[in-house]
Amino acid sequence: MLFNLQRYSTHDGPGIRSVVFLKGCSLGCRWCQNPESRSRQQELLFDERLCLAGCTLCSERCPHAITRTPETLMIQRTQLTAADFEALNGCCPTGALSICGNALDLDAVMAEVLRDKPFYLRTGGGLTLSGGEPFMQPEIAAALLKRGREAGIHTAVESCLHTPWSYIAPSLPWLDLMLADLKHVDEVRFKQWTDGSAKRVMDNFRRLAAAGTAITVRVPLIPEFNADRASIRAITDFAADEVGVKEIHFLPYHTLGINKYHLLDVPYHASRTPLDDPELLAYAEDYASAKGLTAILRG
């Protein structure tokens, strides 16, 4: 299941890249900026600001799950079926209703990706898989990376590494770079904020290092979770001493994804204020540099 294909990206690996976003994730991070990526199933997004008063196109196509009232549109998302998503796809003239998620066609995706091959070759760019968690669809991830490598372009994956190792291993022969999140090394804190296991992530980091995989560590700095000096030291120490990476990226928390929660009608449980702490960011850079890492701040 695919939910986006972004061309001309310059922040998802080296050079100019095309990023294929796959649906499905095994974590439930409070601050997730792509909540529409968590489920492996299609989802309905609704922006009431764009909804035309009196329009009944969607409720006519899906009367058992969508009801028009004088004030607004009432949607029972749990009642939607695959047939409903098909019926609703493209029916809204303003885009107030939109479908997130489409069945992935390998040939079509790679045809789109390879349209920009000259730019990849000129800049050292290529194909990046993102999500969600790409390794939640292990066969698809491996197939896309294999086709990218066979086409002579650089391949990368953005991953939270919170999957069984057996989901990751099939992709390694076709992977040039792993862009991996290291959110925390404290098991209790990690569980509280992500519903996952830090141990699983750390074990996968160790296995990747043992396999000789090129890794760039990414650290989202989240207020009240890991945006403090002790957490930064622990994360950086693990990256440098146990994984042996050369580059670490610090990503200050932002709130650009909050509106997506409204579109999905789900609550948001993280801070509504972006991280604004230049002193802490400078400390993170300095500490990582002292450990021998190249530290980069990503806005």
Automatic annotation (TrEMBL):
Signal peptide coordinates: none
Keyword Iron-sulfur: yes
Family annotation (SUPFAM superfamilies): 4Fe-4S ferredoxins, Radical SAM enzymes
Needed co-factor(s): [4Fe-4S] cluster
Domain named 4Fe-4S ferredoxin-type: residues: 42-71
GO molecular function: 4 iron, 4 sulfur cluster binding; lyase activity; metal ion binding; oxidoreductase activity
Keywords attached to this entry: 4Fe-4S, Iron, Iron-sulfur, Lyase, Metal-binding, Oxidoreductase, Pyruvate, S-adenosyl-L-methionine
Organism: Serratia oryzae
Name of the protein: Pyruvate formate lyase-activating protein
Boundaries of every Radical SAM core domain copy: 11-291
Similarity annotation: Belongs to the organic radical-activating enzymes family.
Pfam families: Radical_SAM
Gene3D superfamilies linked to this entry: Aldolase class I
InterPro entries: 4Fe4S_Fe-S-bd, Aldolase_TIM, BssD/PflA/YjjW, Organic_radical-activating, Organic_radical_activase, Radical_activat_CS, rSAM, rSAM_sf
